[in-house]
């Protein structure tokens, strides 16, 4: 189970680290082609979401890697499940109804949570 956790959590962390960093450093105009919803939220909220994603990605990897507070990996996975639940709601209430990626990320976060409990 440990190898499976590192594969799934590593890929999930890589995605969220990239997406979060983009939300933190790019302008609204640069984000718009990738994220149609970006105009519906204030820019500080987009930046805060990016920061949460980067911290969550770190939380998936760093605690199990160091052996310190390993339960934080489960907390990070729960956070990503909740984040994607909110993201699906945002997509469905707006004009952008493409939620396939969000459903995939939700499922991946749920699998990561399940694997984290076995660490």
TrEMBL record:
It comes from the Bacteria. It is a multi-pass membrane protein. This is DoxX family protein. One of its GO terms (cellular component) is membrane. It holds the Pfam family DoxX_2. The chain crosses the membrane at residues 6-25, 45-62, 68-92, 99-117. Keywords: Membrane, Transmembrane, Transmembrane helix. The lineage of its organism: Bacteria, Bacillati, Actinomycetota, Actinomycetes, Kitasatosporales. It is found in: Membrane. InterPro entries: DoxX.
């Amino acid at each position: 189970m440990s190898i499976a956790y590192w594969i799934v959590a590593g890929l999930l962390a890589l995605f969220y680290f990239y997406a979060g960093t983009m939300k933190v450093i790019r302008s609204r105009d640069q984000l718009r082609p990738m994220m149609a919803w970006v105009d519906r939220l204030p820019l500080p909220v987009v930046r805060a979401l990016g920061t949460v994603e980067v911290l969550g990605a770190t939380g998936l990897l760093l605690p199990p890697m160091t052996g310190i507070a390993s339960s934080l990996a489960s907390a990070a996975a729960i956070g990503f499940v909740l984040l994607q639940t909110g993201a699906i709601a945002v997509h469905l209430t707006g004009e952008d109804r493409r939620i396939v990626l969000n459903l995939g990320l939700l499922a991946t976060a749920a699998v990561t949570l399940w694997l984290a409990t076995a660490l």
